[in-house]
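User: Predict the structure for this protein chain, please.
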Amino acid sequence: MLGADCSELNLVQIPAVSRPVEVLDASGNRIRILKNESFVAYDSLRFLYLFDNSIVIIEPGAFEPLVNLEVLDLHLNSIRELPPLLPFTLRKLNLAENDVKTNLPLDHAQSLTYLSLAGNRLAAIPNMGILPELVDLNMTDNPLEVLNINQLSAFCQLETLRLPTSLMATSYTSTCDCVRVNTWILKHSIYVDPQFNCTVIDESECLSNGSSEAQSAYAACKAAHQAYKWTGNSIWALGVGGACALLFVTILLLYLWRRKYTKPRSPPCQPSAEEVRKMKLLKRSTSRSFVSRASFRSPKTSSGTLRSKNSSSTSTTTTTSTCNSYTKPPPAKTAISACQANTARKEVP
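Assistant: Here is the predicted structure, written as structure tokens:
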């Protein structure tokens, strides 16, 4: 992950960068104004740390170029209000120790899961619109005096709520709002610090007067949460479908290319029936010529030598057998019998 560390350099404006970065740390400087053009070159930025500056003014379109922003840390500044157009991808926002007093238009940041408003001067949770993914809300170190279910109903996924300890030391604990909030957090399994301890004697009167406004806001928050999940699933499905389609098109193009530029292999040449017949006749005629040559070959000399004639006859017979049928030579026993017969003929007067 590529980042730029520009912290504690006494900068008075957002520095320019020569290449895209995902992390920018410009904390500990003297930046007072975030202008509309401050982040034009930071469209790939995901983490922005601007804490411990002197930021007072944020122009309405300052954060619009940050389409991939996930974490924004603005604590220890002098911010009084935020522009309405925060990035949709923003997950964590730290506004602790600022001068926030009025409402915060955060409903455009539908992906927000963590929000810290600690150390401001808030007497009540500000109206921030519906935040369907908010899980953790920090309201500590504020002079909080009022807390009701209408303020919490816009956070339908809330799991952790951190409140100032001073709230539990006021007369708030003896009000019906305390009972209703305590019932709400028990019903929706919200962890609250510090723990609620209401002192109302007859809680039934408080619970009988429920707030229809809170129920409507909670239902709207649930619908927004389902829409957010559907959007995430549809984006994932579109990505997978696009990848599969690209793979299919690539395979199809490769197949067509191979079919066009690869010559088909010709099948092995099979002789016709006529050619097979001619080949058999040629083999037979060749074998017969060898047999005829061997059978009509005359001995070299001497009609008076019986051994030479017998020897020539034996060799002729062997040659004929070999050329004609291509079989193995006769066994040794047959050869011995032939020799004995020749010997017997030689001894005849």
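The longest helix spans residues 212-261.
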